[in-house]
């Protein structure tokens, strides 16, 4: 199995819909990233916030790979081996909603983002993966694809 990329960013979002934190390492557990989205905030009307953060797409792992376009969509049904410990199974594409276009902290409102994703990929951008083998992922870990 040969490396196909490296981990270029790691993020954890302790409070759903709030600013996340960039990390040097993350512990991946069966339910996902340890300490991720444990809490949610409600407004005075009892509604939960959704999707607002300084990173529009709120990824936990960003993997730098060669190629252009939506290369991650070819990973569906395959396994990612991240670093020395973690194994992930890619099981679905991520369908994006209008929240990615809203103003988020220092990012201005950008309605063209969602329009572009819709035109290019039918709102599919990114993938979901389940943790098959838990462990710790580090910034700059190598990532291999199998399956």
UniProtKB/TrEMBL annotation:
It comes from the Bacteria. Residues 1-146 form the MOSC domain. SUPFAM superfamilies: PK beta-barrel domain-like. It holds the Pfam family MOSC. This is Fe-S protein. It comes from Alloalcanivorax balearicus MACL04.
């Amino acid at each position: 199995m040969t490396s196909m990329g490296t981990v270029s960013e790691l993020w954890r979002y302790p409070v759903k819909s709030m600013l996340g934190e960039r990390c040097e390492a993350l512990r991946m557990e069966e339910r996902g990233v340890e300490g991720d989205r444990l809490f949610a905030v409600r407004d005075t009307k009892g509604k939960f916030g959704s999707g607002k953060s300084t990173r529009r797409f709120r990824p936990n792992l960003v993997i730098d790979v060669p190629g252009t376009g939506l290369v991650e969509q070819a990973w569906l049904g395959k396994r990612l081996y991240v670093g020395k410990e973690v194994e992930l199974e890619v099981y679905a594409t991520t369908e994006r909603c209008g929240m990615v276009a809203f103003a988020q902290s220092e990012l201005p409102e950008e309605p063209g983002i969602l329009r572009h994703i819709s035109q290019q990929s039918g709102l599919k951008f990114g993938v979901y993966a389940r943790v098959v083998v838990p462990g710790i992922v580090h910034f700059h870990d190598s990532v291999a694809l199998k399956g």
